[in-house]
Amino acid sequence: MHAIRITEPGGPEVLSWSEVPEPSLQQGEVLVEVAATAVNRADVAQRQGNYPPPPGASEYPGLECSGTVLELGPGTEGSGWSVGDQVCALLTGGGYSERVAVPVGQLLPVPRGVGLAEAAALPEVACTVWSNLVMVGGLRSGQTVLVHGGGSGIGTFAVQFARALGARVAVTAGSAEKLERCRELGAEITVNYRTEDFTERLRAEGGADLILDIMGGSYLDANLRSLTANGRLVIIGLMGGRRTEIDLGRMLAKRLSVQATTLRSRPAAEKAAIVSGVLEEVWPLVEEGAIRPVVDRTLPLGDAAEAHRVMESSAHTGKILLTR
Ligand SMILES: NC(=O)c1ccc[n+]([C@@H]2O[C@H](COP(=O)([O-])OP(=O)(O)OC[C@H]3O[C@@H](n4cnc5c(N)ncnc54)[C@H](OP(=O)(O)O)[C@@H]3O)[C@@H](O)[C@H]2O)c1
After folding, report:
1. What would the pLDDT profile of 83-141 be if each residue is shown by its tens digit?
2. Residue 252 maps to which CATH number?
3. Is 185 a pocket residue for ligand 1 (Cβ < 6 Å)?
4. Entry pTM
5. Domain finish residue from 260, 292, 313
6. Closest residue (by CA) to atom 40 of ligand 1?
7. Do 136 and 255 share a structural domain?
8. Is 259 in the pocket of ligand 1 (CB under 6 A)?
9. How many distinct helices (H) and strands (E) make up the chain?
């Protein structure tokens, strides 16, 4: 079969559509014929050599896919899945390929009303957003949540999900067009981080109960200042660096908590628990149309290099799909 290989750490040009061995199914895995995958920032970091796959994971990039079940591996007989089922899946790697082995607990049905290719835009953002806003962040109706990078794949999903939960949504983004798109998706408070201080704006709006942050170090202090008493900061990305100073006095006085998480390195059982929570609590919202996949553009899988260039330029809003 063919897959996108990272020939050496480097720029988008190191992504090569190459002939590679077929995946072999391990206990509890099914083989999926990939229809589409989607690009995540983590794939860019992996390509640059900064985010190696965890032990045992496929060496090819791709943290999600959609497609058709081709074969049931050992131990998956009673799982309820059959050959020919149309699925989408959360992956630990290997989505940029013609076929991929998937732990059965990481499969999801294609939601009603969503196309097979489009469904590849959902697993990674749905699992990340639901686990961090609900399980970790405890978001509830009526609370204010600040989503940094509202125009990102993660952001466009988080805005819709938080709105559907009944939260008041604030976003940051770097252009008027992205902020307008966030408003259409349900954001009430929109801040262009290039021209406005988000902390001042959030404080004028009564502060955030919860912040979903992708910047890390560069935003830590401003995030702590933007939170209300008992506020929670959940860090899922380090685009602004991994080290900074923290003012513990600020945390003490407002009883703040800070948590940082990553989905990819969680054990399979934790991923399966998240996938099952998403199926129960998020898929109905997708099927009733309260949340839609936001797809910026679709490119052929062989053009993964071009897709990475687009992502690195941040010209996109929402997800970039790669189809067979
Ligand atoms: N921990 C986890 O499990 C997990 C899972 C998935 C994703 N993530 C992380 O989530 C982040 C988003 O991922 P993605 O795949 O959705 O990537 P993406 O679509 O490329 O989004 C990155 C976004 O960040 C925005 N941005 C850049 N600088 C910013 C700043 N100073 N303030 C606010 N926004 C800024 C960019 O657009 P503009 O500058 O034009 O606004 C862009 O929309 C990444 O850091 C990724 O690693 C974490």
Report:
1. 999 999 999 999 999 999 999 999 999 999 999 999 999 999 999 999 999 999 999 99
2. 3.40.50.720
3. no
4. 0.98
5. 260
6. 174
7. yes
8. no
9. 10, 15
